[in-house]
Amino acid sequence: MDLPTFWFIIVAWLLAGFFFLEGFDYGVGMLLPFLSKEEAQRRMIISSIGGVWDGNEVWMVSAGAVLFASFPSWYATLFSSLYIVFTLILCGLILRGIGIKFRNLREDHRWRAVWDWLICTGSFTAAFFWGVVVGDLLQGLPITDQQVFAGGIRDIFTPFSLTAALAVVSLFLLHGAVYLNIKLSGDVLGKLKRLLPIIFLVALLMAAVFLLLGYLRLGMLCSPAELILAGLAVAALIACGISILRKADLTAFWASGTVILLIVSLVFTFLYPRVLISTLDPRWTLTVQNASSSPYSLKVMSVVAIFFIPTTLLYQAWTYWVLRKRVEHSDRY
Amino acid sequence: MDPLVLSRWQFAITTSYHFLFVPLSVGLGLLVAIMETLYMNRRREIYRRMAVYWGHFFLISVAMGVVTGIVLEFQFGLNWARFSRYVGDVFGPPLAIESWAAFFLESVFIGVWLYGRKALSIRMQVFSIWMVTLGAMLSAFWIISANAFMQEPAGYVLRNNRVELVNFLAVALNHKALYMCGHTILACIVTTSFFVLGVCAWHFLRNTAEQDFFRRSMKLAILTGLVSLLGVIVLGHFMARDMAQHQPMKLAAAEAIWETRTDGRESLFAVIDEPARRNKVDITVPWLLNVMVFDSLQGTIKGMKPLQEEQVVLSGPGNYIPPVTLTYWSFRLMIFSGITMLLLLLVLAVTVFRRKIVLPRWFQWALIAAVMLPHIANITGWIVTEVGRQPWAVYGLLLTSAGSTAGLAAATALSSLILFTLIYTVLAFIAASLIIRQIKKGP
Ligand code: HEM
Ligand code: HEM
């Protein structure tokens, strides 16, 4: 395997990890105001991600930095083309991040209510617009030979990218709900269990629409690999539903996580070797080869990555182990 | 409006907010780690209470530091696409390594430190907070080695219309990066020390019940403050010397020297006429400049006018003189703040460690006001570094105007500028109000 392809896989892997981990963080954030009105229970919901979401968010930060380092042209063209989309993602992330940190700092009902809604809308905004990014990556953008975006708002927000956005939101909702299902205890679970089947059905529907539209509009699912990945994703999603019915909580969580990993893999399999499709002229499409950094640069990073990626994974996994207990009513932070 | 100008404002404002909080995170992380270690070793309740109390401020500043940081990372792609393409090969690796080596360390361990109290032994607890602090310092190191490349490019070749990395260690261990990194991390500790001193002084003025608590905190802050401030000043001196060699235009602008100067006179107060390229008023004292830059009474500092002509020969026609008034006064403000802080600390050290003497009230008030001094020095320091480098984004290689995103509409750039400025300003006020509440509440 050549170096740029190796780094393409690392980027895909970081994004998959980000969608898996922040997927449930965003989901929890979106669900927060709807699961309970009681302060003690809301606090439990926040505590379920309180100790881990910071580390999860670094997967996104890391994906951004690695994209910059290994594919400068991809990073520069994607971000500058989707300027509005990323600006809104950032606003969502700011509000949600500060909300989680600040809401507990004052014993004031109104203060907390406001932050809870900001956490919810911030999580939704970030999830939704990341979905738009996924849609735009798949469908391509009007990029000129100078790698300049030559389109308008209609090229960014298309029926397909909006569908992708809603699919991402509903998958994250599902992922967050099954996560809470393994982390919480006591009364707060009641409402959650009632919502779970509905959230599941919405996610199933949106995932199906997304795949169908991808097939019809973009010719996705036409290679065996894509077909297998999509088939497995649907199977995992159904397995998730069955586990919810059978009260196999942990299995349901891993199943919804698998769906996310498979869909990200599908997206990157469809793209390869392209990284940013130009809808104006195929010759102007950015590829793994023409957008990457120099071999020396990639080699240096490979050496560093071989050391840091496993160690980081290890200690992050260790923190999940330390914080593995269900959150209880009496826990206070 | 020009999207380039808007992008520059956005970068300046967002980084300034980042650097309003980051120094406190770096310094408070260190202080809290020291306090927890003291508690582990001596098992005295007071150290635990100190760690908890100062830890509150730490959490607030980290929260702000993280959310402001993410914007910065995305901003290179958003507003500076041509810059990113041009330097990504060299500039990207330090950022990628920063995310693995520093951000993961800090963010993952801050989670267990905060939420793992019940599950962790005290040893692991202390270990976690040290990892958080290490992560914060490493993140300063890597981002600054990337920034140092923009000041003094090293370890690269020009190839394929961009800079390409040929020697990674020359970038990571760029001597400029080492100076800046030391100066900046120590400045973070100075900032925190003065924050702690200010809070202590407020409690002494109020005569709150916790005299012993704040006396101990104050002693620790005097110690960290004095050591780090001396370090900042010594490194600052070396940086000025380095600047004379590698970025003579920046030094000349910081000193408002138009014609080559050999007499070593240091300007104390100048009224600068930039269009006419001269100083209307210039009050100077002898030798000081050469002492500061060369450690000797002899030396030549090239003026901006000859440097401008040299640069035209090298890089073609254009204006290569940075905004002089801003650079000059920023440099003076930083040094003025540094010297004022040194005097305050010396007086304080002598009084506090001689026990019985009680600090006069006006001095306590001065300490409270002095909380602002390191922030002024930080911002003006970055202005010297970044504005003094203009018109270059990467010194001698890429003009700032050639680095902005092509085709970015002014309206788009303006709306994001307004959006971020608004959100940050509101959040900064909220953070400040939380900090003030916490100060008043006491331990
Ligand atoms: C343009 C330059 C910069 C960029 C792109 C940048 C980027 C970032 C990012 C993405 C984060 C969030 C990391 C997370 O999610 O945990 C962050 C946080 C942080 N940054 Fe920066 N940063 C810059 C400048 C600086 C400088 C100059 C320093 C210090 C000298 C610094 C020190 C820190 C620290 C300590 C944190 C952790 C948050 C905190 O403790 O407050 N950064 N930065
Ligand atoms: C009192 C004597 C001081 C001297 C001689 C000094 C010198 C310098 C110089 C020459 C630079 C520009 C570096 C360059 O662009 O090449 C700089 C930058 C800076 N200074 Fe200072 N400084 C002093 C005090 C302080 C103090 C007290 C603080 C804060 C507490 C501070 C914070 C900074 C910061 C944050 C920067 C920008 C980052 C960097 O370039 O390292 N300085 N200083």
Secondary structure blueprint with pairings:
The complex is a heterodimer of chains A (333) and B (443).
Chain A: H1 3-35, H2 39-50, H3 53-70, H4 72-81, H5 83-102, H6 109-139, H7 153-156, H8 159-183, H9 189-218, H10 224-246, H11 249-271, E1 274-276, E2 286-287, H12 295-322
Antiparallel strand pairs in A: 1-2
Helix pairs in contact in A: 1-2, 1-3, 1-6, 1-8, 1-11, 3-4, 5-6, 6-8, 8-9, 8-11, 9-10, 10-11
Chain B: H1 3-42, H2 45-79, H3 81-115, H4 122-151, E1 156-159, E2 162-165, H5 168-172, H6 175-206, H7 211-246, H8 248-254, E3 266-273, E4 278-285, H9 288-294, H10 304-315, H11 324-353, H12 361-369, H13 372-387, E5 392-394, E6 398-399, H14 410-441
Antiparallel strand pairs in B: 1-2, 3-4, 5-6
Helix pairs in contact in B: 1-2, 1-4, 1-6, 1-14, 2-3, 2-14, 3-4, 4-6, 6-7, 6-12, 6-13, 7-8, 7-11, 11-13
The structure holds protoporphyrin IX containing FE (2 copies).
Short description:
With 333 residues, chain A is an all-alpha fold. Chain A has helices at residues 3-35, 39-50, 53-70, 72-81, 83-102, 109-139, 153-156, 159-183, 189-218, 224-246, 249-271, 295-322; strands at residues 274-276, 286-287. Chain A has a single domain (3-179, 188-310), classed as Up-down Bundle (Formate dehydrogenase/DMSO reductase fold).
Task: Describe what this molecule looks like in 3D.
The complex is a heterodimer of chains A (333) and B (443). Chain A contains twelve helices and two strands. With 333 residues, chain A is an all-alpha fold. Chain A has a two-stranded antiparallel sheet. Chain A starts with a helix and ends in an 11-residue tail after the last helix. Chain B is mainly alpha-helical. Chain B has one domain (3-247, 323-441). Chain B is 74% helix and 7% strand. Chain B is built from 14 helices and six strands. Chain B has helices at residues 3-42, 45-79, 81-115, 122-151, 168-172, 175-206, 211-246, 248-254, 288-294, 304-315, 324-353, 361-369, 372-387, 410-441, and strands at residues 156-159, 162-165, 266-273, 278-285, 392-394, 398-399. In chain B, strands 1-2 form a two-stranded antiparallel sheet. In chain B, a hairpin with a 4-residue loop joins strand 3 (266-273) and strand 4. In chain B, helix 1 runs antiparallel to helix 4 (122-151), helix 4 (122-151) crosses helix 6 (175-206) and helix 6 (175-206) runs antiparallel to helix 7 (211-246). The longest helix of chain B has 40 residues, at 3-42. Chain B starts with a helix and ends with a helix. Chains A and B meet through helix 3, helix 4, helix 5 and helix 12 of A and helix 2, helix 3, strand 2 and helix 14 of B. One protoporphyrin IX containing FE is lined by residues 151, 180, 183-184, 187, 190-191, 232-233, 236-237, 239-240, 243, 334-335, 337-339, 374, 377-378, 381-382, 384-385, 388 of chain B.
